[in-house]
Amino acid sequence: KSNIKQDTVLKKSFQENKNVLNDLNEIEKTKQKQKTINRTIILLKNTLFLSGCSVTKNDVIDIRGFEIFNLIAPNLTQIEEGCFFKWYSLRFVFAPQLIEASKRAFKHCYQLKAIDAKLQKIRESAFDFCLNLNRINLVNVEFFESSSMSTCCSLIELINKKAKSFDAAFTNCYQLKQVDLEAAEKIHDFAGCKFITHCRLPLLEQNFAQKIIVTADSHEAQKKDHTVIQKLPDAFQSYQPTNDELKCKDFTQYPDLVISFDELQNVYASHRIRGIILHKAKQLNKMDLKSTQTVVFVYCPNVVKVNDQALKSFHGLKKFISKRLQEVGEESFYGCASMEKINLSQITKLASLSFAYCQQLTNLEFNELEEIPDSCFFMCTGF
């Protein structure tokens, strides 16, 4: 009887343990299933959809990053370091739940124009060398790590209400024109941002910059010897010449433009230049400019030939306007990573690396061209 009773107890215990193991297995399966659901990745042409709350480099290891234009991630809250590093063609990111951009998360995403997120922390080099980034909400970011926004050449305005310290985060933002830093108490930043003209700095006691215009509610230290206005103007950047600018013959009226009616190109500027207008020039040579990074358009309706390296590394150039262009030399537009518009319909001759690294180009039309040289459009991943 004792043995029978003991066997019964053992069987019952075994069954209970088996049930527990089954339950644990079911829980683990559910977790794995949920994990799979949380990591759903859908690739539709040039758009990548991520349904999960986090993403790692492993998750996207099989994705050809240089072919992705759009990233849609409605639930994303965490990004592994360097996850989208060198996704050269990425243009738009929708991640409304994202509050932290990790180290090198979007570094060297040259074509990234806009990111929809609720950012509060931006880690080291997160957006470093995002040359086209100009639509990003930085208002509630509490701290910016070193190089987090370095060489964001298309940023023209910085508004932030939370960060108290800025240290080498915004270096070489060549087109940055005005800053509104409500909580800033210490600034060791903005090296290479030589064209900031307007500031609002209510708490900053140290001297920020010379020859700037400041708001009336800025700290007294900022208002000393500076022009004072009531509020900052609306920041605006025009990427092509206006009718008034095209008609203008008084060159002093537009100090941020180079305007010439000479047939021979003679472009020189020792200050910030937004655009170049050459009414009669027929050839374009390498230019003597203090900063090539701030030029956003070149208007030269009669130019037939652009010579070797003429506009090389004009990173901020958006539009080149000439309907008569026939010949482009070696490396003429090399590294014009922001250029979106150029008329090549009359082109008869191109050269090696003429448009290398012009990733923003997506649609070109040739009516006269018979041959495209090797490497002419090297790394033009927008096609």
TrEMBL record:
InterPro entries: LRR_5, LRR_dom_sf, Surface_bspA-like. Pfam families: LRR_5 (PF13306). This is Leucine rich repeats-containing protein. It comes from Trepomonas sp. PC1.
